[in-house]
Amino acid sequence: MPPPPPAKPALHVDIYQLADDATFAANRADGTGWTWSWADWRRDWMDAMPNKFAYRCLPLTIANQTGWIVNNPVGFTAAWTGHAAAGNVHFRFDTDAATWGGWVNNQFGHGIITWNTPFLFRTRPVDSRLLILGPANRFKHGVQPLTAIVESDWMNASFTMNWKLTGPGQVVRFDAGEPLFQVVPLVSNLCADLEGATVTYRRLAEDATVSEAYRLWQQARDDFHKAKRDGLVDGDAWQKDYFKGRDMLGRVVTSGHKTKIAPPAIRYVSPPPGAGK
Fold first, then answer.
1. Is the CATH number 2.70.40.10 carried by domain 12-192?
2. Domain boundaries, the chain
3. Helices then strands, each counted (H, E), the chain
4. Which strands sit side by side in the sheet containing 179-186, from one edge to the other?
5. Structure pTM?
6. Residue pLDDT, tens place only, 139-198
7. Cis omega (within 30 of 0) on the bond before 125?
8. Euclidean distance between CA atoms 13 and 61, whole angstroms
């Protein structure tokens, strides 16, 4: 009998507040300030679709709600001159530019807006990582979030969040409180996992089991859409095989299938800003 697989290491996330309490929204009266929360599964553009059908795509909604969201602390507009040197993004803050100009700037040049973030994330076990990205499946015209993987199992420095203005002369608006970036802890080293991966390539017909499962799925989809065209099923009906974790060969899905994610509890060693108000 083969030995049992090694136990999966537990993920530990330590979040350290770097900023003073005075920079958090709970302690301010002008509508500015840092806020953060577990990522929300909802998106305005998905809500606006007929019958909100975009939420039927489970991979999208799972990505939406994975990890934490840190929100933009102050409303402002930004425009890039097109020059590469630092300082060539012009900012107009809604309020308190003296405070927030130190947090949001163009220190790297090249039309990049940089936020100096208010948290230090540390993770365990060894080789765990942080994926830092713009809020999943949210879009802004004229600007693109930059994505990073941070070695959070050892790094003691904070990281910056950066968005790249895609062209000169266009004014881009960031509102106070809008989602700024998403933090997704990873229990293992994604880069090392990929470097050590076994990767195969073959034609579908060369794997009889996968080929049969795909054939059954394709046939079921074709039959379902034909039934829709013939008026035999409701026009708004949809197949739920993936949503329900239903394998086309009748096998039990054992890979931790989820339709929603429950946020982990946070143990506050010190009270969050604004607690007790």
1. yes
2. 12-192, 200-261
3. 5, 14
4. 35-38, 68-71, 179-186, 129-133, 148-150
5. 0.91
6. 999 999 999 999 999 999 999 999 999 999 999 999 999 999 999 999 999 999 999 999
7. yes
8. 23
